[in-house]
Amino acid sequence: MPEELATALASAGPRLGRLGSRILYFPVTGSTNDVAATLATNLKAASEGAVVIAETQTAGRGRRGREWFSPPGSGLYVSVVLRPGRSRGAGGHRATKLLTLAAGVALVEAVETISTSAVVSWPESSRRRAAVNRMMGS
To answer: Domain tally for the chain?
Structure first.
């Protein structure tokens, strides 16, 4: 794990509670979601709060299984294992979306404490941006 990232995570540790109870860092992995899903399946409740971080994904997926391009040096890819027990039924889907949004914003704020700038790129917005760039000849 890069020293700057390790230092930032160590200093944030006491504020994170069960989040980050286990942190797995990979320079390259197939998919952070696959690693997180394996943890959740194999470790059950003990996996809650695990964070999977990668600099590059070779088989990343966005929403609805769409391909997520994750080339080296272009981002930090993160998956977190959570078990939101109260998010059942129709409200659970909305709660999960809000949690995803809040986590993205929190990650940007955290990264900006050690870097000059950060941006959340959602799978759907990336596809739209690529389409606009193609239309504009970029």
So the answer is: 1
